[in-house]
């Protein structure tokens, strides 16, 4: 009877202490980026513990974040076990060469899939701005900030707690005109935003700075720093209202459309008004006094009709104008509840 020749095999060992691992499956586009010359950093983030109970109905989730993208992570279990091997030297008898084998040091029973969230998932998911508003306290006056306040945390800590990418959080920070002072983060109230913009415009005029023309951040900051406003508040507001046009290094310019739309919404919520033509005209006159002279033709009823047609821009979250029950905004909110209408409806009459 013929016998098979001896075929040398590879010795396999199984480590007593196994490492638990998960394979991570990434979209092809992200794989290409990771293999490229400027590979992005990846971060796994989850919702803060203190909010998990409140969001149980909405589904707690873990996400994978790049610099500017948030991917959902889904765990997929498998009936197959995957072993990770590494080379291992096998001591032999004296006088014989060391043999090579492999050792199984880790076991994988599942995979994590990183996916773009489906459109239906996006609809039921809280936005970065909504979560940021939940975390950040409202600031009515800069002088009321307590340096030892345990509630407020730094900007870096806020960003680490919200399960979105850095760029999405930076956009939300800018849209809400958030600021940091004494390593504490805040979002400004309507009254604070209105006061800051008024002081900024008046100081710029007094110092001969034309806000309708390119300017430098340093010269604008110099006009308001004596008023005890934090520099980060000016940074957020300028980032929100400035244009994306290419300018010489260090120069900025405000976008007249964005600025007048934002101011119209801010003043409408902070000031409040009646249905009368006199009240509307008075509000427009106040707006004209708070913008550069070349922009005054933009201070018209059209600003409000545009806001009415673009409800997403009229919301306080999008425009950075937050409700403050302790200010006149609270009075305005009570009026809206009593009448069942908001200020957008009041302007419908003027469009006929």
Please give the share of residues in helix. 25-40%
Shape: elongated
Helix count from the secondary structure assignment? 16
The whole-number mean of residue pLDDT values reads 77
How far is the first residue's CA from the last residue's CA? 105 Å
Sheet bearing the most strands, described? 6 strands, mixed
Rg, Å, rounded:
29 Å
**Strand percentage, roughly?**
15-25%
Number of strands: 11
Residue runs with pLDDT of under 50 for 5 or more positions: 50-59, 311-352
Structural class: alpha/beta
In N-to-C order, the SSE pattern is: EEHEHEEEHHEHHEEHEHHEHHHHHHH
What does this structure look like?
It is a single chain. The protein has 352 residues and is of the alpha/beta class. Residues 50-59 and 311-352 have low confidence and may be disordered. α7 (190-206) packs across α10 (256-271) and α10 (256-271) packs across α12. The protein starts with 11 loop residues before the first strand and ends in a 6-residue tail after the last helix. It has helices at residues 28-35, 49-52, 119-123, 128-135, 155-161, 166-175, 190-206, 217-224, 231-241, 256-271, 277-288, 301-309, 311-314, 316-319, 328-339, 343-346, and strands spanning 12-20, 23-25, 43-46, 62-65, 70-90, 99-115, 138-139, 179-181, 184-188, 215-216, 251-252.
